[in-house]
Every structure is written in structure tokens, then in C-alpha cells.
Amino acid sequence: MTLSVKTSSSRAACFSVALVGLFVLVTLPGVLTHEMWRDELHAWMLARDSHSLAQLFSNLRTEGHPGLWHLSLYALSRISRDPILMQIFHLGIAAASVYLIARFSPFSLLQKCLLAFGYFNIYEYAIISRSYAMGVFLIFAFCACMTRLEAPKTRTTPYTQFAPFLILALTANTSVYGLFISMALMLYLVSPTSPTHKSSYPYIRISGILFVVSAWLICLLQVSQITRGQGAQRYAFTDLSTPLGGVELLAVIMRAATTLTQIWRSYVPMPALWSDNFWGTNVLEAVDVFQLVAGIDVTEVFTVLMSVLFVVCVCFFLKHQPKLLATYLTGTLLLLGFSFVFFEGSIRHHGHLFILLVACLWLSRAGFNRVVSAAPESHRSLPNIDTDLVKNDNRQQIFLTTLLIFHVCAGALLVSVDWMKPFSGSRRAADYILDHQLEDFPIFGYLDREVSSISAYLDKPVFYPDANGFGTFWTTPFNRDWTGITDAIQIFVQEQGEPTILILTKPLELQIPGVDIELLTRSPGKLAPEETFYLYRADSR
Predict the structure, then answer these.
(1) Cβ atoms of 130 and 166 closer than 8 Å
(2) Separation CA 101–CA 111 (nearest Å)
(3) In the predicted model, what is the mean pLDDT of residues 114-124?
């Protein structure tokens, strides 16, 4: 019996290492060829160019995220100023998530492979370097920790009892989405049937709850300091208000419908392949046939209905596990509520709805396995356990596998397109400047946020007209106004007294008095078309 257990454990370990190795082998070329865009590089420059931890947290007012990711980047940037270090670190986090899935999740081998190479795990939270991968890793770590704690005859210590509380505290400080999932999983952790509730270390439970709540408050304190207009607050619920202080009911209904479609977007993230710029799109968005019938967007109505159907299905799967059902509904409502009130978000944000689903199905499947294991060995065949439980588990596995197939298709598509086409024009524009030895000239950049990605690759400050000064990461409110940009260019070029480089996100259409301008190159961004750059050489006459 002992030999059998050891053999099974050895096989699981070998499978885990092999899956992680294959994941890194597939993903590493994509990471190395991926042209990072402003959101990725902003966090890197913010951490790299902060001279102290106090300045780092002060600079976070432009981010709208808590600082755990930035603390990690702050430490990494003391080793090297090259942002490739961030990408390798980020890939390591994604690989660690794959290891947790392969080694500790109760899913089938097929589901583990599909989940490892699914859209979010291989692309949004692996190739694109953001704080969200750290949150996903911690969510899976919580599931692995609870699966172990809830296993029969597991010996616990104060350290193992406190571990899930520590994980949730860290999760809350990866992003505001991590905060909401942390809150939802806390319901599961403190439920009356939780091993921490029945623990012989009650002080661990009390101190753990206080510790997690403190982490939530720290997250909220950091997020609340975001400068108005810099991030989520520009999408506030007040946008739906009328001039007289009321709220447009139709606008609220439409906003709610759009918010609900995020469930479909995250569960079935297939992009619209026929769209020119399909990153972040959904396969149903570009369906023009019968899209409008009697003034009603049929496509959106269908998407809303499918989203509701998905939620109903998951609730049916979790009907025998009330604490998981409460966890799923609470987390989903928190994520959707934030999107409805504050920030509509994009596919990388909506993906947390799917990550929450995976976490709940992980814990549900682990619970089902415990029921099977607890049955007497002579009655352990599935028909003798509970017919309804077995059928429910089978439906759940079919549902998850079907979704994961769509995810793998979407992941393969985006990884291959990102490999073949420039995500952003940032790296190519920076390479052009370096190859032609133009980096020593003063550089003028607009729009600020997009051009900042080139500043990161050059490791050189750029003059941002909105800030009226040189900088690396952006510090000014979100702006798309080109009024007066020619005047700003004229003043900058004439003040420099030497040739300058202009980096713009759209071509100049007017001559600038007293300034000679020559177009050097155009550097396109395919998946992020707003990061297509036009490089000019300018000199005063």
C-alpha cells in the first residue's frame, strides 16, 4: 500500500515537472519576442525610477493597483535596469501556477493540460507582464493549501493553519480584482465546516482574520489614492447621471447588460478573427448578421443570456456545497459590481471571473474526491456513493473541459499572432533610434502614455508636453487632446538649439513655422494599434 502511494506520488511529480517544462518551452519564445506596451512598462519604470520605498508608494497614485507587484519589481530593478528581467520573473510566476495545477489540482490529466495552455494562463497572465499573474498564482496556491488541509487525517500545525490567511492577504494586494476574490475565498475559509474553524488553534483563526482584513484595508488605502482621471475613476458610475443629479434608467440597464457580458467574454474568450485588431475582442462582437432587429442588439442580448445561463449552470454544479456556492456568487457579484460602478475593464480584467470559476470548481472537485475516499472500500464504486453527486460531477467535468478547449484555441491563436506580428511598435521604434545612434538627441513624445514604452526600452527620459518636462513613466491625467501640440513642438525644438527626435502616435499633418521636420520611420503596433509610432527628426531653421 505504501509502495503504491509512493509510486503514485512519484508519477504525479514527474508529470508536474514535465508539464511545467513544456509550458516554459512553449511560452519562453513568445515572452522574448513580445513587444511590451505601456501598461507593462509603466509598472517597471515606476519601480525602477523610484529612489526609495516611500517614493515608490507615492508614485503608485498613477497606477490604481496595490503595491505587491511593484515591490517585487523594485527589488528586481536593483539587479538590472533591463525590463527583460521583469518578463523572466513574470514567466516564472506563470510556470509556478502551472506546477500548482499539475501537482495539486483534482482535475483530470486532460483538464490540467488544457488549463495550463489556456488563453489566460499562457497569454494574458504569462506573455503579457502584469500584476495579475501573481494574483492567479496565489489563488491557485490557496486552493492547493485548502485541498491539503481538508484531506482526511492531515496533521496540522499553527503554520499550516495560518498559511491560507497569509495567501489571501497577499492576494488582496496584487490587484483590486485579487482583493475581491480574496474576499470571496475568505467566506470559504471561515465557514463553519472549514478546517480552520474546527482547529485546535483558535487563536490562529482570530489572528488570521484580523491579518487578512488589515491587508484589505491596506489595498483599499493604496487604490483610493489614485489621482482622479488617471485610471478607473474616469469610468465612475456618475457618468450615467443626468445634469439634474438623477440617473438615466436606460443607461443603467444598458450598462448592466454590458457588464453581464463579461461572464461570456471570460468563459469563452475566443477573439473575432476577422477583425483587424482582434486582441481583447470576442467572437460574437463582430457578428453583423441580424445584429440589430427593431433597434435591439441581438448579439448582446444573446451574450447576456449565455452569461446568465453559465451562472445558473455553475450554481447547479455547486448546489451540494453551499459555502462554495456562496463563494462563487459573492466573488462574481463583487467583480461585476466593480466593473459596473467604477471600471469597465478589458479581457485581462474580465479573466478574473474565469479564475474564480476555476478556483471554485477546483475546491468542488476536491470535495467530491473526499466523499469518494470516505466511502467504505467495499462500496467505493461510484454508483454506490450518490447517484446525484456522481451525475453532477460528470456534468461539471464536461462543462469545464468544453470551456477549456475554447481557451486553448484562443491561447494558441494569440500566442502565434503575437509571435508573428508586433504587439506594440515600442521595441522597433527604440531599436531604430539605437541603430541610427539618435539616442543622445533630445526626444519629444506624444501621446505621453504610449510613448513611455519607448522611454523604457531606451532607458532615457522623454519630454512629455502634458507634464511640461522630461520623464519616464507618466504622471499626468489621461489625455487624448492634440490641440496645441504643434505649438508645443515648435517651442521645444527651438529651445533645444540642436536636432531633436519627435515620437508621435499619429502623423503630423501641418507644417510647423520655423521648424524643419523629416519623417524617419513608422513603427506599427498590430495587436495594440494605438502604439503605432511615427519618428521624426526636427531642427529649427
Answers:
(1) no
(2) 9
(3) 97
